[in-house]
Amino acid sequence: MNLPMKLTVSRIILIPFFVAVFMIDFSLSGIIATAIFIIAAFTDFLDGYLARKNNMVTDMGKFLDPIADKILVMSAMTLLITFGILKEGTFNLVMGVIAMIIMLARELTVSALRMVAAGNGSVIAADKWGKYKTVTQDIALPLLMILKGGLIEGVFYSVIYYAGIVFLIISTVLTVLSGVNYLVKNKEALK
């Protein structure tokens, strides 16, 4: 197992710890869970970078890497909704649920498209829109998760919360754009 693959596996292993720490009710749970999320998200960047740079791309890595990424992001979105972090008004809760559904729909669609293309002997690589989507998700989610526990209050809470909401909206728009872009660029795979 090469280093990029070990990083991908470590991300998968970190996910249950991230979820468990976030779910435990203590004042630092939001901060510690956010730190674990950031480390896990960084492994997503690092494993891809190392695999491409050192020509260590494997079929198993191409299979596991996107799955690990999606489980991490969907876990974070589920926790934010379940624990009421997206509670500042009905709009934000509804927007959070809609964002999660859009993210899940996009990931399932792109994964299905990749499977169809693979069956035809084609490979659909990640594109820049997907990378922008991931970056904005990896900014939005920690900004919102760190608010759990009540250690951040007042003006700082509001600034961090609304910055997280703005990045979540941006990531949702990029999710739609990248999903449409994958479908348009790879429509031949569906014929």
| N- to C-terminal distance | 36 Å
Element order: H for helix, E for strand: HHHHHH
Helix content: over 70%
Average pLDDT value?
88
Count of individual helical segments: 6
Q: Which residues form runs of ≥5 with pLDDT under 50?
A: none
Main sheet makeup:
none
Which shape, going by the Cα principal axes? Answer: globular
Please give a structural write-up.
- The chain has 191 residues and is an all-alpha fold.
- It is built from 6 helices and no strands.
- It has helices at residues 3-23, 29-53, 59-82, 90-119, 128-145, 154-185.
- Helix 3 (59-82) runs parallel beside helix 5.
- The mean pLDDT is 88.
Topology of this protein?
Elements: H1 3-23, H2 29-53, H3 59-82, H4 90-119, H5 128-145, H6 154-185
In short:
The chain has helices at 3-23, 29-53, 59-82, 90-119, 128-145, 154-185. The chain has 191 residues and is mainly alpha-helical.
Note the main attributes of this structure.
single chain; 191 residues; mainly alpha
